Automatic annotation (TrEMBL):
GO terms for molecular function: carbon-nitrogen ligase activity, with glutamine as amido-N-donor; transferase activity. Keywords: Transferase. InterPro entries: Asn/Gln_tRNA_amidoTrase-B-like (IPR003789), GatB_Yqey_C_2 (IPR023168), YqeY/Aim41 (IPR019004), YqeY/Aim41_N (IPR042184). Pfam families: YqeY. This is Glutamyl-tRNA(Gln) amidotransferase subunit E. PANTHER family: ALTERED INHERITANCE OF MITOCHONDRIA PROTEIN 41, MITOCHONDRIAL (PTHR28055).
Length: 147
């Protein structure tokens, strides 16, 4: 079953069960997919949809930080629930230990020795981990090893 079909099935299920948060999240994803398809006049495959969902997860996590600063605990909880739902559609996320190993390997492969080599490391790693890890976490781990 394609990701697009799964989203449609989940939308129907969430409407029947009156799960408003899930319905809203799935509708948001389907809307973003449809928008990109219309804008680019293409049919998106699962990989493209994973990219869209990853971007939305990143936006939601940024929003959580803003909500925490504004002491909006109600919005923090809602947004965290939305992130959990979005993560269900992404491939299994890599643990920090797995990421650390991948970063070490990438540093060795590109021969990185300083922060100037960060671009090489990231361009080598990101295609491999796309949708399975947050780029900012990868960047943080790489910086720790390049100090």
């Amino acid at each position: 079953m394609s990701l697009k079909d799964k989203l449609m099935d989940d939308l129907k299920t969430s409407m029947k069960s009156k799960d408003k948060v899930r319905k809203d999240v799935v509708t948001m994803v389907r809307s973003a997919v449809k928008q990109k398809e219309v804008d680019e006049r293409v049919e998106l495959d699962d990989q493209d949809i994973i990219e869209i969902i990853s971007k939305q997860v990143k936006q939601k996590r940024d929003a959580i930080e803003d909500f925490k600063k504004g002491e909006r605990d109600d919005l923090v909880q809602l947004t965290e629930d939305e992130v959990k739902i979005l993560l269900e559609y992404l491939p299994e996320q890599l643990s920090e230990e797995e990421l650390t190993e991948l970063v070490k390997t990438a540093i060795a492969q590109v021969g990185a020795t300083s922060m100037k080599d960060m671009g090489k490391i990231m361009s080598s790693l990101m295609p491999e981990i796309k949708g399975r890890a947050d780029g900012s976490l990868v960047n943080k781990i790489a910086k720790d090893y390049l100090k």
